[in-house]
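Entry type: protein chain
Record version: 2
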Amino acid sequence: MELRIALLQLLPGKTLEDNLSAGVKACKEAKAKGADIALFPEMWSDGYYLPQDEEHVKRLAIGKDSDFVNKFRDLAAGLNMAIGITLLESHDPRPLNSVIFFDRTGKEILHYSKVHICAFSDEVVLSEGEDFYTADLDFGRGTVKFGSMICFDREFPESARILMLKGAELILAPNACPMEINRLAALRTRAYENMVAVATCNYPKGQPDCNGHSTLFDGVAWVRGEEGARDMCVFEAPEEPGVYVATLDLDKLRTHRSEDIMGDKYRHPGKYGILSDPEVKDIIGGEFVPW
């Protein structure tokens, strides 16, 4: 059983209306290409634009029940295709960096706000999310349990580990940064250590500090009966804008999860107390200095 994931690697426009129009067009293209779900890059509603004036940011933020978001709710139902739409979301005291997933009937099934905001940089004007969530996505031919993490969440093993422990087989990850060898290696590792698929949608080259290379790591490090390890990166987009459809073999992933030793099978959670001790911090120290 295959799941087809459209990675909408798009350049944003200058206004909310521009991004609505371009997003609708891209979703229709994704459906024409056979996608079961379409995923936007991070904070598509304003093209990841974060002025450092808090009042300006608040004016740019939109509600989860705004016309912009509801258009994609209706579009998901009209196309019979799930959509993950990203937005700068209105919130008190500061906006959130969020993604909302609608299934193929237009029903909201998951609403996630970025937990690990880049508070060392432009995202200091945002609030952070509260938790990680999973949901069941019925895509017509079957169901997959998925969750989401956004960009910098990727750098924390806890993000993907929590999603795996909550049952996720697939992580859908909106993104807005250069996807270079180290960040790609982090995605590969999150997929490997948790036996989950990780699909990431980035902005293309032309968007400041972005370079495309949206990816799908399928989480299957080897196949029983085949010699050696395999490349889990089953799809990597080029730098250019486009609607790219990556295919995930769910049967292969589920077989691997049933046969391999990774994920939750040999954990020792009783020995990990330091991970949740709020008093353990500032171990490395220092101050971030932009390049």
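Comment: The mean pLDDT is 96.
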